[in-house]
């Protein structure tokens, strides 16, 4: 069986990570969540008290960080310098800052190089914002997943079992804000690759999306 690389991009809350993980499982591929890497950098910088307004300092520290992604039973673990930071990187605080740190050119260059290394031997499902355009422009399959803002907010809301006391309206605002920041930034903004398949999942359930992508991949094997 010839292995390929699969790039899945799209805006916040489109369900990329759930879908990417299931596609990877169906094909016995490795899943790489690049958002978790930007989140890990963000968490670490906030811990160190270094704001995104100090890009040189952020870059210097990023280059020294050891970021590991470990595939686990219920998703992927993220280690920073050996410490499991998975429980911290999806907090509201990190949500609020991650798009600012991800705009720093050197941080992107560093993380993109790491991501390209991970994909060298193929058999990777990678999700993010710039995978099909910048990280893996040669990926055999590129998917651009979207859904309406309302639907994406609703999915996040259900996923959170109101743990953080957020209303649906607040979630919609958060998603719109991140969409805007990610799409408007100068360096590799969120953009659909010319050769990507656009999947609007607003009215699709999870198995339908997974099957669509897996079927598509099979035409390549
Ligand atoms: O996918 P997730 O929502 O975890 O990503 C968090 C943030 O990380 C995004 O809002 C974006 O600012 C940044 N990101 C990025 N490039 C990627 C993946 C994520 O800039 N490839």
Features:
single chain; 221 residues; five-stranded parallel beta sheet; globular; binds cytidine-5'-monophosphate
Overall shape: globular
Order the strands across the largest sheet as they lie in space.
2-6-1-7-8
Question: Residue ranges: pLDDT <50 for 5 or more in a row?
Answer: none
Give helix % range.
40-55%
Tally of contiguous helical segments: 9
Using the CA coordinates, give the radius of gyration.
17 Å
* Overall mean pLDDT: 93
Order of helices and strands: EHEHHEEEHHEHEHHEH
Which structural class matches the secondary elements? alpha/beta
Oligomer: single chain
Number of strand segments: 8
Q: Give the distance, in angstroms, between the N- and C-terminal Cα atoms.
A: 7 Å
Explain what you see:
With 221 residues, the protein is α/β, with parallel strands linked by helices. The chain contains 9 helices and 8 strands. The chain has a 5-stranded parallel β-sheet with strand order 2-6-1-7-8. Strands 3-4-5 form a 3-stranded antiparallel β-sheet. Bound molecules: cytidine-5'-monophosphate. The site of cytidine-5'-monophosphate has 13 residues, from helix 2, helix 4 and helix 8.
State the gist of this model.
The protein is α/β, with parallel strands linked by helices and 221 residues long.
Topology, pairings included?
Layout: E1 5-9, H1 16-27, E2 30-33, H2 34-48, H3 55-64, E3 67-72, E4 75-80, E5 83-84, H4 92-101, H5 105-118, E6 124-128, H6 131-135, E7 141-146, H7 149-159, H8 168-184, E8 197-200, H9 206-218
The chain binds cytidine-5'-monophosphate.
Cytidine-5'-monophosphate is lined by residues 12, 34-35, 38-39, 98-99, 102, 128-130, 178, 182.
Subcellular location: Cytoplasm
EC number: 2.7.4.25
Enzyme class: transferase
């Amino acid at each position: 069986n010839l292995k390929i690389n699969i790039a899945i991009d799209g805006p916040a809350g489109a369900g990329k990570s759930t879908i990417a993980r299931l596609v990877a499982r169906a094909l016995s591929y490795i899943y790489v969540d690049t958002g978790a890497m930007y989140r890990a950098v963000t968490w670490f910088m906030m811990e160190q008290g270094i704001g995104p307004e100090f890009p040189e300092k952020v870059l210097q520290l990023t280059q020294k960080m050891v970021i590991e992604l470990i595939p686990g039973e219920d998703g992927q673990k993220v280690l920073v310098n050996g410490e499991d930071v998975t429980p911290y990187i999806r907090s509201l605080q990190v949500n609020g800052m991650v798009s600012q740190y991800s705009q720093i050119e050197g941080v992107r260059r560093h993380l993109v190089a790491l991501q390209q290394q991970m994909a060298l031997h193929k058999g990777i499902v990678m999700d993010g914002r710039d995978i099909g355009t910048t990280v893996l422009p040669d990926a055999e399959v590129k998917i651009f997943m979207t859904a309406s803002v309302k639907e994406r907010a609703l999915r996040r809301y259900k996923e959170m079992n109101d743990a953080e006391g957020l209303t649906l309206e607040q979630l919609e605002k958060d998603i719109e804000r991140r969409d805007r920041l990610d799409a408007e930034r100068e360096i590799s903004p969120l953009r659909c690759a010319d050769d990507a398949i656009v999947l609007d999942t607003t009215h699709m359930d999870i198995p339908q999306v997974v099957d669509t992508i897996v079927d598509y991949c099979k035409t390549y094997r």
